[in-house]
Amino acid sequence: MILRQITARLAALGLGMALVGALPEALPAGEAAAAASPAVIRIDNFSFTPPTLVVAPGTTVTWTNADDSPHSVREKDGKFKSAALDTNDTFSQTFTAPGEYNYFCSIHPYMTAKIVVKTGAKLSSN
Amino acid sequence: MADRDQKEMSGAGGVNRRGVLKCMAWAGTGVLWTVSGGVPRSLGLLGAAAAAESQAGGLTFLQISDSHVGFDKPANPNALGTFQEAIAKINAMPAPPAFIVHTGDISHLSKDKEFDDADQAMKALKQPVHVIPGEHDVADADNGKLYLDRYGKGTQGKGWYTFDAAGVHFIALINVFNFAPGFKSAGLAKLGDEQLEWLEKDLHGRSVSTPIVVLAHLPLWTIYEPWGWGTEDAPRALGYLKRFGSVTVLNGHIHQIQQKVEGNVSFHTARSTAFPQPAPGSAPAPGPMKVPAEELHSVLGVRTVNYVHGKSPLAVIDTPLSA
Question: What is the value of ipTM here, to two decimals?
Answer without folding.
Answer: 0.73
